[in-house]
Design brief:
single chain; 469 residues; alpha/beta; Rossmann fold; pyruvate-formate lyase- activating enzyme; 3 domains; 6-stranded parallel β-sheet; 5-stranded mixed β-barrel; 13 helices; 33% helix; binds S-adenosyl-L-homocysteine; binds iron/sulfur cluster; binds FE3-S4 cluster
């Protein structure tokens, strides 16, 4: 048994982590043939991609995927800790699974993802959720096949969570959920320690994958006819800093842009270490999509400082303006938190002012949620619930207005869309533009996975309608 420990999770010494190749014990390959698994994924793209690796590991054990948890022999929750409601959703699901297990005694239940890295969650599971067969952390996810096998063979609860960053595993198997767009991890962990955020504790220290491993993965995706790669990291801008003296995200983007892949995206970028050269490279290559997610969090310098964001409103706007100037047709989206401790009406007004200036193409807005063990938990000046709700509501009204205003400007324009599917509801195709707008459209002889020209006929707040030409 290995239990999570926040003190260790916070440690950032420059110990050497190992790079190892994933292996699976031959004796357990296909051992569970005929059994079925269900996986529920909460949280970010990183977790979605982890679930693609988890699915592949389970399929190596012989499990087949099902879409309804009631049909499964094994249910795995890949959890998220970012805000309290993500937490509550996972515990709600555990409640339902408890009932199911009363009828289905052999059901195997497991939990992984960021919540597995939280001591308080694991304590609750040890005490009140004894029906959970195993918990495995994000730092040692590659041990999943062995942990599941042990949980089944021993019929004892397995808790295997390491709080120090794990070794960096290459060659994890993957079953990709999308045949045209592929996630590629470039860096794990986060060292930014924004004061509200739990990620640096649940995902460990920043660890970059070697450029050769990344380029090889992208090359294989090109050979398999993928149309889009999405480079993933909690802060992709830090790519390479722990590994190389003279190779960073700009270099990696440039090398990938020269490969034969039609679309490249990356997420997420922290404004603090977005370099001029990165902006130049993004502007220079047409296959690096002109859409940047640039979380601002707040428009008040006082709050940004309390959040530990390392930039000011002024330096953020300078960066924002530079991107708009240098990257042709760029769209910028953001994340904003309201109700951070100490946020006054004036601070909130500054956030509204910033939004009115930036007129974001998209924005994810959140109410501050206290995460146990993070410094913001202890800050004075808690904002009361009603005020937080009211600010979120006001903020959403403003951001939504700009989404529509921006989309309206696209009416009559022709956009390139990667066709991802056809909706059974209205029989329309859907896909995303280069600027990451959701487009629903009609057309003849459309093939999924093609990039087609769509003339935009009408704009909505969150999507656009059009017809292929
Ligand atoms: N690494 C990414 C963010 C990942 S979390 C980045 O730095 O851009 C996604 C978003 O969740 C954050 O940008 C932030 O807006 C929000 N968030 C994180 N912790 C939060 C908390 N404790 N309460 C409310 N929102 C939070
Ligand atoms: Fe969290 Fe900040 Fe790291 Fe993003 S950069 S994951 S908000 S600590
Ligand atoms: Fe959630 Fe962990 Fe992602 S906390 S947002 S799943 S890194």
């Amino acid at each position: 048994m290995h239990l999570p420990d926040y003190k260790e999770a916070r440690t950032r010494d420059k110990r050497n982590y190992k790079r190892v190749d994933f292996k699976i014990d031959n004796n357990i390959i296909n051992k569970y043939s005929g059994k079925k698994y269900f996986i529920k994924t909460y949280g970010c793209q990183m977790n979605e991609h982890d679930s693609e690796n988890i699915s592949a590991m389970l399929e190596k054990l012989g499990f087949n995927k099902v879409d309804n948890y009631l049909d499964a022999d094994l249910v795995l929750l890949n959890t998220c800790s970012i805000r309290e409601n993500a937490h509550n959703k996972a515990f709600g699901m555990l409640g339902r699974l408890k009932h199911l297990k009363l009828e289905k005694k052999d059901l195997i239940i497991g939990l992984t993802g960021c919540m597995a890295q939280e001591s308080s969650v694991v304590e609750d599971i040890l005490k009140d959720y004894k029906f959970v067969n195993f918990v495995i952390g994000t730092n040692n996810l590659y041990e999943l096949p062995e942990v599941i096998d042990e949980a089944i063979a021993s019929n004892k609860q397995q808790i295997e969570v390491y709080s120090r960053e794990g070794d960096l595993y290459e060659g994890l198997p993957v079953v990709r959920a999308n045949s045209y767009k592929a996630y590629v991890n470039i860096i794990y962990g986060c060292d930014k320690f924004c004061t509200y955020c739990i990620v640096p504790y649940t995902r460990g220290r920043e660890r970059s994958r070697k450029k050769e491993d990344i380029l090889k993965e992208v090359k294989d995706l090109v050979d398999d006819d993928y149309k889009e790669v999405i480079l993933l990291g909690q802060n992709v801008n830090a790519y390479g800093k722990d590994l190389y003296d003279d190779y960073n995200l700009a270099d990696l983007l440039e090398e990938i842009a020269k490969m034969n892949i039609p679309r490249i995206r990356f997420m997420t970028s922290h404004p603090w270490d977005f370099t001029d050269r990165m902006i130049e490279v993004i502007g220079k290559y047409p296959n690096i999509m002109p859409n940047i997610h640039l979380p601002v969090q707040s428009g008040s310098n006082k709050i940004l400082k309390l959040m530990g964001r390392r930039y000011t409103k002024e330096s953020y706007l300078e960066l924002f303006n530079k991107m708009k100037k240098i990257i042709p047709g760029v769209t910028i989206s953001t994340d904003i938190i309201v109700g951070f401790p100490g946020e006054t009406e004036e601070d909130f007004q500054e956030t509204l002012d910033l939004v009115n200036y930036c007129k974001y193409d998209n924005a994810y807005t959140f109410i501050f949620s206290k995460r146990e063990g993070t410094p913001a938990c202890k800050l004075p000046g808690e904002v009361n619930e009603e005020i937080k709700e009211e600010r979120l509501h006001r903020l959403n009204e403003v951001v939504n207005e700009y989404f529509l205003e921006k989309n309206k400007k696209l009416e009559g324009k022709i956009l390139k869309v990667l066709v991802e599917g056809k909706s059974s509801k209205d029989n329309m195709y859907y896909g995303y533009s280069e600027t990451n707008k959701l487009i629903n459209f009609t057309g003849n002889n459309i093939k999924l996975g093609d990039i087609v020209n769509v003339e935009i006929e009408s704009a909505k707040t969150w999507s656009l309608d059009g017809r292929a030409i």
